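Worked example 3 (structure in, sequence out).
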């Protein structure tokens, strides 16, 4: 007997980011739709071919979203928010981009606010939040893009003379509603109209000969209340069944208190992800015990979020036992979609000590096939388990001296800043010249000395502009950094930075997370020379600019177990702390430690959250524990939901926090009031993404509101994020308005 092998999904950016480049050219009007689709089709084809080559039992398709899977489904279900009126006329391809970007590529419709983007569970992938009207009908169905994938997959199989069942991936109806925003207070009320739409889609897939539909229900890994558990029963009992057979997939964590709900859904089977389970063996047993005896259990053993090879011995033991009980009802798969991994390790020059230890998406296909054979005992496990050397001992987190009030007074005595001090978040425009210089330097065409001169020119330009604008606290502009995490990873021991390990973050935006390979430490100063140079050009206080330990860890590939992460986070914190010390010794009196990903690593289950907050806060505090009372520590956060974690942000005890408020409305300030935020705060007075120059009047609204909750002595004025994506013209005009506004409020509120 054999065990069925499959994956839950695959990256769609292409091994050389072909999809990204094709779409961006299309959006810029540099190529037509036909050639764009042709280039994307090549990536799709190779995704299917690679599954066939890896000899997986099922061929998974339907997950090839052009922007985002939730968006694809919402578009297929006919969702068109009111401000996009008329957009239903656009074809599926253009309509989804209009929703995602707020800009219609065909030029038929005016710009409007794009759909909101939110992090996909605890990953750095962003999905688009569907906006459902109270009377959403889900009637204007348009399944073309999903159907086409099935047709194309069948064609590829036929051409190669391969006969394998097809499985289509869809976001499940309950998670779809949970993740949407709706005018209805009770989102589950949409089920009555949503389920018939799903049934229609499934019916069409069935007619095409699709054997299985994988309905992704990742919310099953959250602590769901009774209402949502009932929604599952309601949804699935009315959903059209057979064909295709339905597999409900959970991932990123265990089923927790939803285990009973999941096991008893009227479907052919369920998928569980054991790669993040604390006790994977027991977890599998527990599910088998509850699962009715005719159902399929797909066990996800190949981690869709780890770049390390799978521990075959550990997996073999678990799967052999499961196989003993389930026989051919056992399926073996990736834990989650492989979307969160770089595509192909073959493009890397892997350092010797890592050889044989890494697996990207393509390599994981082979691993899934191997694991299925481990289950039946057809092959024996390879002794390949990878262990990181984490011997670098730290005796717990340290905390800096002094209370905020006395620290802030000491800092003010030294800095002598005006009321409502103005500053920016760190980066200034990453110009074409900067990118050119860096590319040449990386290629070896520009010497270290010439590169340094080029960057110093940019720093000088930043200083001149800030001088002219009359900003109070300066930044050097981060010209030398491509990415705020990668930069530091490059200078720390214990990280490996791949050359082509891109992962989709949202739409066509990709990131290249560094990979943790061992103890993390800082052999020498990473930023001091740049900041010192910047400070030498001005009498204004220069703000040293660092990335915080929580963000560096969350935006890297590192083991998922809590204990290891706690150690690594603290090792990074110590490296950053040493950098703070060096900056301070070099005469820098203000240091910003960015933590935009502070919330991202929050575990999905409430029971694990307190531990995370405690560790995250402690790591941040450790990262500036060396700071004198008179050294001012800033932090910065943006584009995340902070409302539910303000107490932990407060506990970080940074002297000043600059935080994005423009997008989340001003409710955030309100929440700070409720929580009694005691330190200083710079609410972002304008959205750095705004295409037009925001007016002083609009910016003042933020300060007028903030001052209701925060005493003026503790208020700062700044944009809501870094300016690296803007050009200089936009930057200068927006900042000029910000300075004009500040002068006004200084007068208005000075007594
Ligand atoms: N200091 C960084 C910058 O200005 C912060 C970026 C971020 O918040 N993501 O670019
Ligand atoms: Zn930011």
């Amino acid at each position: 007997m054999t065990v069925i092998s499959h994956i839950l999904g695959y990256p769609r950016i292409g091994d050389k980011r072909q999809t990204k480049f094709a779409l961006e050219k299309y959006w810029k009007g540099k190529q037509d739709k036909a050639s764009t689709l042709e280039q994307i089709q090549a990536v799709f084809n190779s995704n299917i071919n690679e599954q066939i080559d890896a000899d997986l039992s099922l061929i998974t398709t339907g997950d090839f979203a052009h922007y985002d899977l939730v968006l694809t489904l919402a578009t297929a279900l006919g969702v068109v928010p009111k401000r996009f009126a008329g957009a239903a006329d656009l074809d599926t391809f253009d309509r989804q981009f209009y929703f995602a970007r707020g800009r219609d590529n065909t030029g038929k419709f005016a710009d409007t606010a794009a759909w909101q983007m939110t992090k996909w569970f605890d990953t750095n992938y962003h999905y688009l939040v569907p906006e459902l009207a109270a009377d959403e009908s889900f009637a204007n169905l348009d399944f073309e893009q999903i159907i086409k994938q099935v047709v194309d997959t069948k064609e590829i199989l036929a051409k190669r003379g391969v006969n394998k069942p097809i499985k289509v991936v869809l976001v499940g109806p309950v998670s779809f509603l949970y993740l949407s925003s709706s005018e209805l207070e009770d989102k589950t009320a949409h089920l009555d109209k949503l389920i018939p739409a799903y049934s229609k889609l499934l019916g069409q897939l069935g007619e095409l000969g699709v054997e299985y539909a994988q309905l992704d229900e990742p919310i099953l890994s959250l602590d769901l209340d009774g209402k949502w558990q009932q929604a599952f029963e309601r949804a699935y009992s009315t959903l059209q069944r057979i064909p295709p057979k339905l597999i409900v997939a959970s991932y990123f964590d265990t089923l927790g208190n939803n285990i009973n709900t999941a096991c008893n859904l009227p479907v052919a089977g369920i998928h569980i992800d054991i790669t993040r389970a604390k006790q994977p063996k027991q977890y599998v047993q527990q599910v088998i015990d509850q699962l009715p005896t005719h159902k399929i259990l797909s066990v996800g053993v190949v981690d869709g979020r780890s770049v390390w090879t799978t521990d075959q011995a550990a997996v073999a033991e678990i799967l052999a036992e499961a196989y003993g009980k389930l026989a051919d009802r056992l399926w073996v798969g990736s834990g989650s979609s492989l979307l969160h991994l770089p595509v192909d390790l073959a493009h890397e020059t892997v350092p010797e000590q890592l050889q044989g230890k890494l697996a990207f998406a393509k390599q994981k296909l082979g691993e899934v096939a191997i694991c299925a054979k481990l289950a039946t005992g057809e092959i024996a496990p390879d002794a390949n388990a990878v262990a990181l050397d984490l011997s670098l001992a730290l005796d717990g987190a340290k905390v800096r001296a002094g209370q905020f009030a006395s620290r802030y007074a000491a800092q003010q005595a030294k800095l002598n800043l005006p009321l409502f001090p103005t500053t920016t978040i760190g980066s200034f425009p990453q110009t074409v010249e900067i990118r050119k210089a860096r590319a040449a330097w990386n290629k070896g065409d520009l010497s270290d000395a010439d590169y340094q001169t080029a960057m110093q020119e940019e720093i000088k330009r930043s200083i001149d502009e800030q001088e002219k604008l009359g900003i109070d606290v300066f930044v050097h502009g981060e010209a030398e950094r491509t990415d705020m995490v990668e930069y530091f990873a490059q200078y720390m021991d214990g990280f490996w930075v791949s050359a082509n390990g891109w992962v989709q973050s949202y739409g066509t935006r990709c990131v290249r997370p560094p990979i943790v390979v061992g103890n993390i430490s800082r052999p020498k100063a990473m930023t001091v020379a740049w900041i010192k140079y910047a400070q030498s050009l001005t009498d204004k206080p220069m703000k040293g600019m660092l990335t915080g330990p929580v963000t560096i860890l969350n935006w890297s590939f590192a083991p998922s177990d809590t204990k290891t992460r706690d150690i690594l986070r603290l090792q990074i914190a110590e490296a950053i702390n040493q950098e703070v010390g060096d900056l301070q010794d070099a005469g820098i009196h203000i240091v910003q430690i960015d933590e935009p990903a502070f919330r991202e690593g929050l575990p999905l289950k409430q029971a694990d959250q307190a531990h995370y907050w405690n560790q995250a806060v402690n790591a941040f505090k450790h990262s500036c524990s060396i700071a004198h009372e008179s050294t001012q520590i800033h932090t910065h956060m943006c584009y995340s939901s902070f409302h539910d974690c303000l107490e932990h942000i407060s506990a970080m005890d940074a002297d000043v926090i600059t935080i994005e408020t423009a997008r989340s409305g001003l409710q955030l300030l309100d929440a700070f009031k409720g929580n009694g935020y005691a330190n200083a705060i710079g609410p972002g007075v304008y959205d750095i993404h705004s295409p037009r120059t925001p007016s002083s009047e609009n910016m003042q609204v933020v300060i007028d509101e903030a001052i209701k909750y925060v005493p003026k002595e503790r208020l700062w004025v700044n944009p809501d994020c870094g300016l690296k994506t803007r050009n200089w013209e936009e930057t200068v005009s927006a900042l000029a308005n910000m300075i004009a506004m500040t002068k006004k409020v200084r007068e208005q509120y000075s007594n």
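Notes: The longest strand covers residues 296-302. DSSP finds 24 helices and 21 strands in the chain.
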